[in-house]
Amino acid sequence: MINPSSQYAHSVTGLFDVPAAAAFAFMADPIALGQWSLGCMNTQPTKTAPIHSGHSLFDGAQGFFEIDTDPDRLIVDYRLGATERLVPRVSARVVPADICGLGKEQCYVTLMAWRTTDMDDVRWHRLCVTHEAEIYLIKSQCEAAYGQV
Q1: Of 34, 38, 113, 124, which is most buried with the most CB atoms under 10 A?
Q2: How many other CB atoms sit within 10 Å of the CB of residue 90?
Q3: Can you tell me the distance from the alpha carbon of 132 to that of 110, in angstroms, rounded to the nearest whole number?
Q4: Residue in 98, 131, 101, 129 with CA at minimum distance from that of residue 14
């Protein structure tokens, strides 16, 4: 089945005033993730590297993730779930300035998420609106971090 709405996947994109390399490094940093991911705040490494954990601001639940990066394509996959079965359900893609004619100190950052079959409509809607808010947090924090370098 094909559905053009956001029933199966969601994406949100922000225009960042940093070079693509800086945005990619920020998106690949598991500790930085703990400052913008509302579902996985205050991230910490676990005893099983490279897995990290954090806690949801919504219900306090502990979540686990690991980050898989593709520096050549500027893609970051966030593998989520139980420590014994982490799956790539959320990704970030950084689009460099020259691809879309942006200024040399700019890039696009897109967050993408895929819905699981056990996710009810309320949980899916919460994930979508959360990503809409998180892109603003990411943009602000990434630009602030880049300005401090």
Answers
A1: 113
A2: 20
A3: 11
A4: 131
Q: Which amino acid is at 41?
A: M
Three-class SS state of 58: coil
Three-state DSSP state, 46: coil
> Residues 6 or more apart from 122 whose CB is under 8 A from it?
none
**Which structure tokens are listed for 124?**
């899916």
Nearest Cα to 109, choosing from 9, 20, 33, 47? 20
Q: What does the pLDDT look like over 49-85, one tens digit per residue?
A: 999 999 999 999 999 999 999 999 999 999 999 999 9
Quick check: pTM over 0.70?
yes
Element (H, E) at 45: strand 41-45
Q: Evaluate whether 90 touches 68 at the Cβ level (below 8 Å).
A: no
